[in-house]
Design goal:
mainly alpha; 434 Repressor (Amino-terminal Domain); about 110 residues; about 45% helix
Length: about 110
């Protein structure tokens, strides 16, 4: 890969979210800054980057990550392949029960499919 096309890695960082009293914000920022933390005010939320993201996209991505075809996934959870296709194309809602079945097979949290 060309040097100028490499993206900076974030593997050495962890994002944390805390609720702290407003009177302690500056003290906490100072402490975290002394440990090498950086303010990420210039970051963009994932909702802004992927405005069309939804359960159907999560399902397709998880299925592909597991190298399963729609047909094979359908067989594993006991539904027709057309149901998987409809869910992935946003034409069929994914209920809680189905989300839990999908999550078990796809190794994901069921809530991403809701």
């Amino acid at each position: 890969m060309l040097e100028h096309t490499k993206k900076p890695t974030t593997a050495d960082y962890v994002e944390l979210c805390f609720r702290i009293p407003s009177h302690s914000v500056e003290k906490v920022k100072g402490l975290l800054g002394s440990l090498g933390a950086k303010d990420v005010k210039d970051s963009v939320s994932w909702e802004e980057v992927y405005p069309d993201f939804g359960p159907h996209i999560a399902l397709r991505g998880a299925r592909k990550r597991e190298a399963l075809t729609q047909k094979r996934l359908a067989e594993k959870i006991g539904v027709d392949q057309s149901h998987i296709s409809e869910m992935e194309n946003g034409r069929r809602p994914i209920g809680k029960k189905m989300a839990k079945r999908l999550a078990e097979i796809l190794g994901a949290d069921y809530r991403v499919f809701l």
